[in-house]
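Field reference: "sequence" (input) and "structure" (output). Example, Protease:
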Amino acid sequence: MLKLGLFLIGARSFAASAHYALMGGVLLIACGFLGVIVPDDQGVRIGLAILGLGLATRACVYVGGLVLHSGLTVATLILSLLFLLVSLVWMAAPVIGARPAAVALAVAFTIDGLSRLPLIALVRFERWRDGVLLASGELLLAWVLASEWLIPAYKSLALLSGISLSVSGHSLLRLALLMHNGGPFGSLHDFLTGDLRSWHREIPKGRRPECEKQSASLAVRLYIWTPKFAVAGSTSWPLVDRYLMTFGEGGKPSAGHAALGIDSDLYLSHWPVSEISAGIRDLPHVFYSGRNKDMPGLFPPSYAFECEDWIPADQCIEFRTRNADAVRAYWNAYRQNTAYNITDRNCSIVVANALELAMEGHLRTRHPWLRLARLLVHPALWQASYLRSRAHHMCWTPGLVLDYANLLKQVVEPSGRAASSLSVVRTR
């Protein structure tokens, strides 16, 4: 979440204050070590009360923001209330003790860890063992917190707080290093992306094109064909038909589609040459991401071509960007390989990468640290970071890209409208 906020503000904003990132990173890491070695539980409890107050305030802002943005669904309401409950229990640690706070946090880690494992098992991406290790680490940490195995509750909470501060400090140190090496035109996309997946190998490394500072603001249009809309007579499979695929008449599957256009000369879309045939029981086989699942792909030249060849999109989101050159460089590199893989080289992965490149530095400002502080309490940024982490343990799909883009829209253009449903007529 911190990384995404830094990325949206961009390297140019932080270039003049890279030394603050360096000092902040060192300070956070030092505080993290201090939290680990603090000797008595009373100081820890006071610290937990202060931290819990901040978390509870942020949780209230999160829930309120969801309501105001009409983004409150059953799932997000449950997650928000859990977050609020954990925060309140943590804040009450000086009165009720560290034990209830540790148990509440253990429950949160258990839910998060268990929700990641099925996604990893479904996709089995190239470094799936690392993903399992990370999820297992969450479950182990939950066990340590709940059972007080080897470490007392107050000490385990101090350890967790120290680790959290150290990770944030490491992010700021990486930012300072990037600023030192790349200057105001250094790209932060490597800083944002994780190492579990290899989706970003086509993205040019290092500096962004300097000509972007003279470029005009161009319209970015994200087109989404949702799975349920893409096939007639689709059956309802909660969550599956939103984020994976749905099945229509005769068992015809559809995972939907995503494409992105900038101005009139740049259109990003990737599609398999042959349709994928599968049933609901074949999902583990279809979503396996091994290289033996690569198939020939094609690049439709325009949205008009896709409308004529198939059907118009049912959702559209529009942004503004000055980073068209960076997106064009990425697309030129990506098209050197036509291979399509449903979980490693698909239409949604192309669009997610391109959208992030287009949004890098969109919130640049003369006061980046103040803007970052405001972003850290923005509910949509928390949700977007959560969706992004889930995509890296599964894959980007049209449903995930749609939700992610809507959340980014709330962050970078708060007065703008979210995805608009297009009035379309099915042609087949």
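The CA atoms of residues 299 and 335 lie 8 Å apart.
The longest helix spans residues 153-182.
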